[in-house]
């Protein structure tokens, strides 16, 4: 059993840092589906560092601070910064220019609502009031509950469907696969 290379993921999220961040767990599950391995091992070895930061400005500040970036990239670790494409802190071409060999910039098409709506479309057993709370009221706990439900589902059908509906999320997962494989 080969080991994985660690990767740090930084996410724009209005909720800021919290335990069991749904989008990160969903990314781990989707990467696991692509690799065909053990979710717990992948989370423990390679993707344990997934940080939701409060807003695009905070995420941009994190990747533009050379000392902080050096800490994040310790031991040659790549970093992926995931911004919502609907309100990037810089024009997308300028934002992408910040990327380097070890700093990757990803724009999540539209925003988190796109992922939530795709999740609702792909997992018909989700409660309508939960979906409404996540989409209309932008309730962070509801979003995490939806995304964690897909992440921890025993089968990959709904996750595969979401990746098909949100190509930027699929591209992010494919990038993570390449990076964890080294």
What does this structure look like?
The chain is α/β, with parallel strands linked by helices and 182 residues long. Helices cover 54% and strands 12% of the residues. It has helices spanning 22-35, 39-45, 56-64, 66-72, 92-97, 112-122, 128-135, 140-151, 157-165, 167-181, and strands at 8-12, 49-53, 79-84, 103-108. A four-stranded parallel β-sheet has the order 2-1-3-4, with helices on both faces. Helix 5 (92-97) links the parallel strand 3 (79-84) and strand 4. Helix 1 (22-35) runs parallel beside helix 8 and helix 7 crosses helix 8 (140-151). The radius of gyration is 16 Å and the shape is globular.
Topology, element by element:
Layout: E1 8-12, H1 22-35, H2 39-45, E2 49-53, H3 56-64, H4 66-72, E3 79-84, H5 92-97, E4 103-108, H6 112-122, H7 128-135, H8 140-151, H9 157-165, H10 167-181
Helix pairs in contact: 1-8, 1-10, 6-9, 7-8, 9-10
Stretches where pLDDT is under 50 for at least 5 consecutive residues are none
Helix percent reads 40-55%
Query: What spatial form do the alpha-carbon principal axes imply?
Result: globular
Kindly, what is the distance between the CA atoms of the first and last residues, rounded to a whole number of angstroms?
14 Å
Report the portion of residues in β strands. Answer: 5-15%
Give the ordered list of helices and strands.
EHHEHHEHEHHHHH
Number of strands: 4
Tell me the domain tally.
1
The number of helical runs is 10
Report strand order across the widest sheet. 2-1-3-4
Q: Measured on Cα atoms, how large is the radius of gyration?
A: 16 Å
Which class best fits the helix and strand makeup? alpha/beta
Biggest beta-sheet profile? 4 strands, parallel
Q: Oligomeric status of the shown chains? A: single chain
- The average pLDDT is 92
